Amino acid sequence: MGTSNSNGALRTSSRQCLQDRYDEMWLGAIPQIRTGNVETDSVLAGGLPDRRRGLTLIARPPPRVRQHVAGFVRGLRGLEPEQLYYTASQLHLTVLSLFTATVEPETFLARTKDYVAAVDAVLSKAAPFHVELSGITASPGAVMIQGFLENEALSEMRDALRAQLRAAGLGGHVDGRYRLVTAHLTVARFRAPLRDGGKFAAALAEARHLPFGHSKITSISLVKNDWYMTPRTLKMIKCYRL
């Protein structure tokens, strides 16, 4: 009985920590979106090809989740068609960025075999995990689906990967932008000023607690990618079955 209560408390605490983080993001972003003061992506705004490349471990949501997300995205596109909206083939949960996408990836890519060996050592023993995708949050530059975890499996996997990469001398550029703790799906990025920030913010607020479904993650892919996981530039390095 004590163990069950302890596990339940841990899940509640973990979920609340994630919700607090998503709330913090939302409260910081929604006033800017409402006034149209969004952060546009310079590469997208310029219509330039993205020459940045990185190595990333990603997981894909199942078809039913992608369908729910597509319906939500259609509504946003109708309001603000100039923005970038992720297609079903771009949707992903980032497990870990082995190094952040850069215009000078050659030094990192030269050690791809070492990266693969480090990931092999961890994911060969990893088990499937579950993600509940529920509600949306935002940043001044993007819109995201919130992800919640039923236990600490993903956090422990990330920590094990970080430790293995450090041991192999590859840890210096992990979490290059920030330490990844969430399990979100990015669905839109801003590449132009908003036509009507008030309407767009209202649409986001309506979806704040919209359920998108559960994902049982049974495989993780190591990919070479650009910043947006563009299908035509993405290259599969290895797929891991959990």
How many domains in all? 1
Are there runs of 5+ residues with pLDDT below 50, and where?
none
Shape: globular
Tally the helices: 7
Helix content percent band? 25-40%
- Give the strand tally: 9
Instruction: Tell me the CATH topology.
Output: Cyclic Phosphodiesterase, Chain: A
What is the strand content?
A: 25-35%
Instruction: Report the span from N to C terminus.
Output: 30 Å
- Largest sheet properties: 5 strands, antiparallel
Report the radius of gyration as a whole number of Å: 18 Å
Going by CATH, the architecture would be Alpha-Beta Complex
Average pLDDT metric: 93
**In the CATH hierarchy, what is the superfamily?**
Cyclic phosphodiesterase
With strands numbered from the N-terminus, the spatial order across the biggest sheet is 2-6-5-4-7
CATH uppermost class: Alpha Beta
Order of helices and strands: HHEHEEHHEEHEHEEE
Structural class by secondary-structure content: alpha+beta
